[in-house]
Amino acid sequence: MSLSTVALLSPGDMGHAVAAVLVDKGLEVITCLEGRSERTKSLAAKAGIAVVDTYAELVQRAQMIISIMVPAEVEKAAAQVADALRETSAEIVYVDCNAVAPETSKRVAAAIAASGSRAVDAGIIGGPPGKDASGTRFYCSGVDVAEFVRLNDYGLDIRAMGAEIGQASGLKMCYAALTKGTMALALELMVAAERMGLLGALVAEWELSQAARYEGLQQSLPSVPTKARRWIGEMEEIAQTFADAELTPQIFAGAAEMYRWIGTSALADETPEHYDRDRTLRQVIEILARK
Predict the structure, then answer these.
(1) Alpha helix stretches (DSSP H) within the chain
(2) CA-based angle 151:228:226, to the nearest 5?
(3) Environment class of residue 121 by beta-carbon count within 10 Å: exposed (0-12), middle (13-18) or buried (19+)?
(4) pTM confidence score
(5) Beta-strand pair 137-141/64-67
(6) Which of 11, 6, 15, 82 is nearest to 42 (CA)?
(7) Which run of H or E residues covers position 5?
(8) What are the tens digits of pLDDT across the range 74-87?
(9) So what's the pLDDT on residue 35?
(10) Which of 16, 130, 259, 288 is the most exposed place for a label (fewest CB within 10 A)?
């Protein structure tokens, strides 16, 4: 399959950064922005993404579609693409790069296969890439991973895992359970300590016995409220992943609830591009504790 045009759903925080890497390496990246926010439209323009009016035009122009969006929209978007594929008789490779449970990724792949196209399961580990995509890895699985791996030639770091849809999503779920799951735990316990008048004592002890860990929290946690609403669905997908593995989903159902609670704070109205980078972790906790 020749590769000249890649479609992206949707150019949010991660998606527009991935698109910018591909555009910089000479690929045309297109998207359909029907129903998307003004912020998403602005990010698309910033990344150099061309806009088409319909999903039908999207599947006819692109050879590959990369889906990067919040979990709640994943299956709806795949269904829209599948409808457009049937309508146009086009064939594409659909790469589901979303933070979803393996069973969700299997349903997406089945919907795409039923429309006569091919699907790849992928999971992204790391933050939005810079121009060299350093530190952002795409793990992928499925029988057609070789098609997606070709984007290594266009600036991405893509690593094939195996032939089974769901493997890449499972890896992403376990990884995010540690990173974003423990962030939710850390924020909850620090708010609890602040409300009990114990945060100063807790931090003093951490500086003695958990200095490296506390330094990491100071770097990673202040920006979390800007992403908390997006992470609710991811924690719910992790909970479902563990339930499917016959383990308790309750730990990550609780993490989802914590992010839902943070999402009601004024801090969550800020964006990753525009928040006070001078605001300390202590100040974030004080604001949350006053909710």
Answers:
(1) 13-24, 38-47, 55-61, 74-88, 102-114, 145-149, 167-195, 199-209, 211-220, 228-244, 250-262, 281-289
(2) 80
(3) buried
(4) 0.93
(5) unpaired
(6) 11
(7) strand 5-9
(8) 999 999 999 999 99
(9) 75
(10) 130
Residues 11 and 237: their CA atoms lie apart, in Å, by 21
Report the residue count for the chain.
291
Q: How many whole angstroms separate alpha carbon 46 and alpha carbon 231?
A: 24
CA atoms within 13 A on the CB side of 143: 5
- The Cα–Cα gap between 56 and 51 comes to 13
Weakly modelled stretches of the chain, pLDDT under 50 = none
Tokens (6 digits) for 103: 């069973």
CB 183, CB 49: distance < 8 Å: no
Residue 68 gets which letter from DSSP? -
Q: How far apart are the first and last CA of the chain?
A: 54
Q: Are 76 and 55 in contact (CB under 8 A)?
A: no
- In DSSP notation, 98-130 reads -S--HHHHHHHHHHHHHTT-EEEEEEEESS---
What separation in angstroms does the CA of 195 have from each of 23, 186, 283, 286, 291? 48, 14, 13, 9, 10
pLDDT of residue 273: 83
